[in-house]
Design goal:
Distance between the termini: 51 Å
Strand order of the largest sheet: 1-6
């Protein structure tokens, strides 16, 4: 059970990182950025080629991935969303879906649809044994140390990174001028613009932060689940959107809470009912239906009224 709990916290942390991007964009623009999962996919490919093709040290490759993915997110915002700022919401939503298909087909055409093995990084692939039971057999002079939990380093690394970046993000939102501008724009777009806030800069910054977190999640996902392919962002993207809705879309701590709930739920379902392993993806959609039925605003969401 301890082994499964560790895996659940690790998976939930990955979902939380990606879900934050969804919830931030929705909080500012009231837009579901369906291309976010594919930005995550591109980040995984950037990491793969940085290490495998350009033979960069993994530290340098990871920094490069964050920069490249952030630039990609900002470019998408400037080219696909900014021209539609005053258009009906449906137009922006269709544009987001179009960007998603564009990235998926671009990756399939350029990188091929064949899955690629993510390069192994020795530091993260090592195992740590926690606890242990010593068994002695004096009559044959034999002592055995049986580990209770044997977990990869990356499994511990992921939650730590998630907590660190969540703390940094909350500090930015609550204690900086950029964060104050974000909160103002999320409350009232038009009034914030009249008060002198550079709305375009705030929105671009929001996409940059969300894309950088997706890049960090992509790198750690590639290390933990070492396979990269063009459609790898579809299901994690949908699940992280569901995590954001479960926690309360538009609420950053809510997105993190939803990610942990979804990750732990999946792992514990497989652990307790192995026969239902093939239905683990269905859990996310069942949870979404239940949340929409009984608490549409999410666990930490607040009731809002739509302005006419």
């Amino acid at each position: 059970m301890l082994q499964h709990l560790a895996n659940g916290v690790s998976l939930g942390s990955l979902y939380a990182l990606i879900a934050i991007g969804y919830t931030m964009v929705y909080g500012i623009l009231r837009l579901i950025n369906f291309a976010h999962g594919d930005i995550f996919m591109m980040g995984a490919y950037f990491a793969f080629f940085g290490i495998a093709a350009f033979h960069l040290p993994w530290q340098a490759a990871f920094i490069g991935v964050i920069l490249a993915t952030t630039l990609l997110g900002m470019t998408i915002e400037r080219t696909a969303y900014k021209p539609l700022r005053d258009a009906p919401k449906n137009s922006v939503l269709i544009s987001a879906i179009g960007v998603s298909f564009l990235l998926e087909n671009f990756a399939t055409y350029v990188f091929s649809g064949k899955p690629k093995a993510f390069p192994e990084i020795t530091f993260f692939s090592q195992f740590i044994s926690i606890g242990g039971i010593e068994v002695s057999f004096p009559w044959i002079n034999l002592n055995l140390n049986i580990p209770v939990v044997r977990v990869q380093v990356i499994t511990f690394f992921i939650p730590v990174v998630t907590v660190i970046f969540l703390a940094i993000l909350l500090y930015i939102i609550n204690h900086t001028k950029l964060g104050m501008s974000m909160r103002a724009v999320s409350k009232d777009y038009e009034t914030a613009s009249v008060m002198g806030i550079d709305v375009d800069r705030v929105i671009t910054s929001t996409f940059a932060i969300g894309s950088s977190l997706a890049a960090i999640g992509a790198v750690m996902w590639g290390v933990k689940y070492p396979q990269v392919q063009p459609m790898m962002g579809v299901m994690p993207g949908l699940k992280c959107f569901i995590a954001a809705v479960v926690g309360g879309i538009g609420n950053v701590p809510g997105a993190v809470l939803g990610g942990f709930i979804l990750g732990m739920g999946e792992i514990l379902l497989v652990a307790s009912l192995p026969s239902l392993t093939g239905y683990r993806d269905a859990l996310a959609f069942i949870l979404l239906i239940l949340i929409l039925l009984f608490r549409p605003t999410g666990i930490l969401g607040e009731k809002t009224t739509e302005k006419v």
